[in-house]
Amino acid sequence: MKDYKEGLNKLKKDFETLVNSHPLTWEKVKELKKVTGVYVIYSGKEVIYVGSTNNFNVRFGVDLINKSTHTLNNKLLNEKSPEETVNFIKNKCMYKIKDCKDKVEAECLEHFAISVFEPHYNNHFYKKPDSKKV
Q1: Is 134 contained in some domain?
Q2: What sign does the dihedral 86-42-64-76 (CA atoms) show?
Q3: How far is CA 73 from CA 8, 41, 87, in A?
Q4: For residue 132, what pLDDT is reported?
Q5: What is the side-by-side strand order in the sheet with 93-99?
Q6: 132 domain residue, yes or no
């Protein structure tokens, strides 16, 4: 069995690598093909969304601007028109990414980053259920 401290240290290091990576534009991220990893979307200095994918060029080429396939887009469409949403995602946001060896590593880092940043558009992940009195 792997020492939990070793796993925790790796997760921390991966998170720091993600946070300290250089921001990329939509076009640069979309060029990454068959790469598994985590992405952080910034609006200005605010983290608004964290996600993971096993194919950046599909996620950023089609999925992120398609209402039916991406949580962020669906939530933005509650606030903006389809044209404003696409413009916002493509031209107003910056992206940081960290490539991962596989989907499990990516999902661990994604959920860790969500728990640290608590981004507005990921709130379905970290909202605590209302406690009910018995």
Answers
A1: no
A2: negative
A3: 32, 12, 11
A4: 52
A5: 46-53, 37-43, 93-99
A6: no
Each residue's pLDDT, cut to its tens digit, for the chain (134 residues) gives: 468 899 899 999 999 999 999 999 998 988 888 899 999 999 999 999 999 999 888 888 777 776 666 788 888 888 888 889 889 989 999 999 999 999 999 999 999 999 999 999 998 766 655 545 44
Mean of all residue pLDDT scores within the chain: 87
The domain tally of the chain equals 1
| Structural domain that includes position 102 | 4-126
Q: What ranges in the chain are assigned the alpha helix state H?
A: 4-20, 26-30, 56-61, 71-76, 82-87, 103-117, 123-126
Nearest Cα neighbor of 26 from 80, 91, 75, 85 is: 91
- Confidence (pTM): 0.86
Residue 83 lies in a domain: yes
Rounded to 5 degrees, what are φ and ψ at 102? -160, 180
pLDDT attached to residue 123: 81
**Would 12 be classed as within a structural domain?**
yes
Phi, psi of 132 (to 5 degrees): -110, 140
